[in-house]
């Protein structure tokens, strides 16, 4: 996949021009990516809506559930996806940002027959995530994103950072809190930022620290955990058992500083091995 003349080119990429766009970005912009969900039933229906002049809405990209990409607006032109929005002292994010819409039904209601979207479609439990939204305090149900979508959005954001010098990635829910809840807690927004925006730093040289939260597993039958990287330092907890998964925070010759996660049950699909 490459960006040529402000368009993505490559397998599975379509360009369908939407009439819903403004003029060109000012110099030095866009510098931000805004992540959305479509709250729709399919990528096709969302593309159609975002190309309908009556909706006065668009985005630069629509990402299908199997990894299709439809571009609706050239990356050097202003699309209409953010609406009333503000963050970090700026407002009206259409003029600063590239908008990515991901095909996803959004928040769901739990019914006897399954989990229902606002437009009436019902989804099985295997497609549903129960989680607390960052702007709320109680859990609710959300349509799951596909692995293809998450991986593709990471790749797309890396390409856009390289082409346009993007420095910020935000969810619609962060620039329009109270009015918008997309992309919601089913989307790994913080991980996306970590993977895309902290990437340059890890490319700088061979001698910097390991990436934050690199995971490791204890292979000794019992492993002492000490207050300092020395054999004579006091132990800080009972020995770690074989198979314990730890987060590696930093290293010195011969030693890792680690953090041990609390034990509990988790859904298998959210465990990376
Ligand atoms: Zn949105």
Walk me through this protein's architecture.
With 273 residues, the protein is of the alpha+beta class. It has 2 domains: 201 residues, Peptidoglycan recognition protein-like (Lysozyme-like), CATH 3.40.80; 57 residues, SH3 type barrels. The chain contains 5 helices and 22 strands. A 6-stranded mixed beta sheet has the order 3-7-6-11-5-17, sandwiched between helices. A 5-stranded antiparallel beta sheet has the order 14-13-12-16-15, with no helix packed on it. The chain has a 3-stranded antiparallel beta sheet with strand order 18-21-22, with no helix packed on it. The chain is globular and about 70 Å long. The site of zinc ion (ZN) has 4 residues, from loops.
Provide a compact summary of the structure.
This protein is α+β, with helices and mostly antiparallel strands. It has helices at 43-50, 147-164, 172-175, 189-197, 199-202, and strands at residues 2-4, 7-9, 13-15, 21-24, 32-37, 61-63, 69-71, 77-79, 86-87, 90-91, 97-102, 107-111, 114-116, 122-123, 128-132, 139-143, 168-171, 214-217, 222-226, 235-241, 245-252, 255-260. 16% of the residues lie in helices and 34% in strands.
């Amino acid at each position: 996949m490459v960006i040529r003349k402000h368009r993505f080119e490559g397998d599975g990429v379509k360009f369908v021009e939407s009439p819903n766009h403004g003029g060109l970005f000012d110099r030095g912009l866009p510098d931000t990516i805004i992540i959305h969900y479509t709250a729709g039933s399919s990528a096709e229906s969302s593309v159609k809506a975002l190309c309908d002049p009556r909706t006065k809405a668009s985005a630069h990209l629509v990402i299908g559930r199997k990894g299709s990409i439809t571009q609706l607006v050239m990356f050097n032109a202003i699309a209409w996806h953010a609406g009333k929005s503000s963050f970090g002292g700026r407002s009206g994010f259409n003029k600063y940002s590239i908008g990515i819409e991901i095909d996803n039904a959004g928040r769901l209601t739990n019914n006897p027959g399954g989990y229902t979207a606002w437009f009436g479609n019902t989804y099985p439990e295997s497609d549903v995530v129960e989680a607390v939204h960052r702007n709320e305090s109680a859990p609710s149900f959300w349509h799951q994103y596909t692995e293809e979508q998450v991986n593709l959005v990471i790749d797309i954001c890396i390409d856009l950072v390289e082409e346009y010098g993007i420095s910020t990635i935000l969810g619609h829910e962060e620039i329009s809190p109270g009015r918008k809840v997309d992309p919601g807690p089913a989307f790994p927004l913080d991980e996306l930022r970590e993977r895309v925006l902290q990437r340059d730093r890890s490319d700088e040289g061979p001698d910097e620290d390991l990436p934050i939260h690199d995971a490791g597993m204890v292979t000794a039958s019992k492993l002492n955990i000490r207050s300092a990287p020395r054999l004579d330092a006091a132990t800080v907890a009972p020995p770690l058992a074989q198979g314990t998964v730890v987060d590696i925070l930093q290293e010195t010759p011969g030693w890792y500083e680690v953090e041990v996660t609390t034990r509990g049950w988790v859904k298998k699909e959210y465990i990376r091995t």
